[in-house]
Specification:
This protein is α+β, with helices and mostly antiparallel strands. 21% of the residues lie in helices and 27% in strands. The strands form 8 sheets. Strands 1, 2, 3, 4, 12, 13, 14, 15, 18 and 19 form a 10-stranded antiparallel sheet that branches. Strands 5, 6, 7, 8, 9, 10 and 11 form a 7-stranded antiparallel sheet that branches. The chain has a 7-stranded antiparallel sheet with strand order 20-30-31-32-38-34-35. It is built from 14 helices and 38 strands.
Amino acid sequence: MTLPETPGTDTRPAPRRRTVVAAGAGAVALSALGAPTAGAADGNAAHGTAVHGTAAHGRTPRAPRLGTGWQRYVQAPASRTVRPVLVLATTGDVRAPEGLLAPGGARTVLRRPRPAAAPRWPEGTVAEASSAHAGNNGNDGRPRTYDAGNAIDGDPGTFWNDDTLGEFPDTLTLTLPAARELSGITVVSNSDGVPTDFTVDVWRDGGWWTAATVADNDVSHRAVPFARPVSTTRVRITVTAVQDTPRGAFTRINEVWPEAVEPVEPPSVTVDFGKVVVGYPLVRFTSASDNSPGVRLAFSETRQFLTDRSDFTRSDQSGVPAQGTDQFAVPAGGADWTDRKGHQNGTQVYADGLHGFRYLKITLDALASDAPAAEPWGTVEIDSVGLDFTAYLGTPATYRGWFLCSDDDLNRYWYGASYTNELVTDTFRQDDVDPRNAWSASLEGQLVLHDGPKRDRDPYVGDLAVSARTLYLTHDEAAEAARNVLADLAAHQRADGWIPPASINAYTLPLFDYPLWWVTCSWDYVLYTGDRGYAERHYPNLLKVLDVWYPSVTDSAGLLSKGLNNTGGYGDYAFLGRTGRITYYNANYVQALNDAAALARWLGRRADADRWTERAGRVRDAINAQLWDASAGAYLDSGTGPVRHAQDGNAIAVTAGVADAGRAASALAHLDATTRRPYGNAFMDNDTLFDGASQRVYAFTSYPEIVARFETGRADSALDQIRRTYGWMDGHDPGITHWEGIGPDGSLYEDAYTSMAHGWSTGVLPALTHQLLGARPTSPGYATWEVRPHPGDVSWAQGQLPTPHGPLRVEWNRTSTAFAVTVHVPAGTRGAVALPGDSGRLTVRGGGRVLWNGRRASARSVSVTGGRVTVSDLGPGTHSFTATTGRG
């Protein structure tokens, strides 16, 4: 879940993946950047290295013994103390930078001389600007001004801020009391956006003369020498472009100096942790000079957005003027410092605390406003850098479910999804959650599923539609994280039945679709866990949201219509500006009604179940009558406005059973023809909703499309979409984890703001387990289950699903003429196996006899269901079946 930002662009081609075929755990898989994704650094090694499923000369090796081999794909660190694996870069005076990688070795030393005093303008110099932002209470509640005089007051903590957002030119004019010879100037700007293009003019012979032109500037301290010295009484800076930042595209200049002063490059070291990690950074300082030298830490999930500022800090949204980094003033005797939220000295030297990142830049520097508590010069000696990893630690021992198949890429994506989800499974803590009024006493200290480790650290129920399934299939003891979120949102249900999407904005963020996801997620929770207590306790919430709130936004055709009941301003998962009859909302409504009916039947509320089932049928018929576009062969995104067709509505129309077989085939073909990109399938087929919509990929809405392709017999196209979507993310920085969204040309769709590890993007994991492997529950707590493989081009697959009764294990392999499957069934459950292939051409054997000869069954438990030979009523124990082409 994210608030809208402008998508970024990264036109770099996908790198060629370098792989290592390994017979054991000693080899190291290399990331797209050539840095180890796992290594022997202290506490940071993965639990093994990927063994590739395709051997030399194109031969596919045998599947390993059931339960072996998958452990080497696990990505979590081996312990909660995580170390960086590589030094990427240094600047300035740095000695032994590699000492940061492990404690007890060489000490890393950063040195910086005390800077000379900044030059000043003569007394009586006056500054004027084309505009100036009105004074306010700043971002910290303390009054601030932004007028032109701040640029020459000698205080780099104040600045001129123009008042024309994104409009240029902006001018700053300095008038001296008497003529002065200038050989250049220095422009010191705010690190939160710097002037990128500007000219410097001087007044000479009754007119303005251009003394210097600067283009593509990206530094906050810019010396601007003139071609030759000029005697003048006036200097004018004309800014024509600035860096766009989360606080807007304004011109911000902190100081202008009357000389061209080249900056002394601050000493810095940039380290790489090998993959995205999350927690509290740790730095062991062994000593420092006695002037309280400052150290600033900047974090980023990608190298593209690694600068002197972090790619994201909660302080950027909470109002603390931290300049986008975490600061620490090092005492002379050193310190073992854990980066936690708060000020080190009164209101000075602020740190943000927990971070989600891959790259860390440590710089000897300090904010001018932090003097004398922290100074930007001196000497600092560091023994090591690390991280106290706070998220769920998914070691092989904690996995209750696993997956393995003949395609090494698919294995990587499955465990990349699991690791992504582990990063978002964390304790809800006041200091670490989204600062936009998201803290809630009712969640404090509880395990939850956040959106992402870096940003939006708040549990949104729409994300749980994917991330909770991922959790149920990997670490069943962490299912409480989903329950905690669902129960808390139910407890904050509004009087009219609407259920909030998250705790953000004190549970008031108005989203139209997320109450439907609460219904579906509640059924999912019960389906995977069999928790009857949860179902009974929150059944009244279910009644209220489906029988009170959604009827209040239903039109005369029986369709949900955003805009009714004052919902025109409500958003959805992507804050999309669409109103009226939307296919996505209504297909989701059908799914939620059917899920609610299933839960009601389980609880014995048959009248409710029948009512919801009947309503789901009416909504389904209305969608097909009102929102099907026969000319395109796909469902409209909206019944009004420009014609477009969305991935979300069309995909869920298939998975929710709205579309019959003909419409499903047509809709999926339309998406293939109009939304296919090298990095996945876009979520819109044109740009009528917003510019670039047809280039944006959300793994969140790609998941139901992938499921739809598997379930309609299009396994090869499902696998192709998986390989494009997840292959792109796996093969681009930061590697392994799954992104919140992908923009044009495969870019980070919201630049640095993009979350590069997002739980809602992990749908590849349940898709590979439930659809490719084919195993899934069909009634609460896996009392009944089904194995219906969709193998596509995969030669073999095996896996384990955690159930309340014990593990359900499945293994299958196929050749050109045969398909063999074995199911290991836990006590207390019964299920069915549906074998792939044309039933009229198959001979099915099991238990030493022919069960199906291509025409008829030899047992009552064998039938043809949905075109597949299905063996039903399988109880505890081991069951093996082989289907061969031809009649026996």
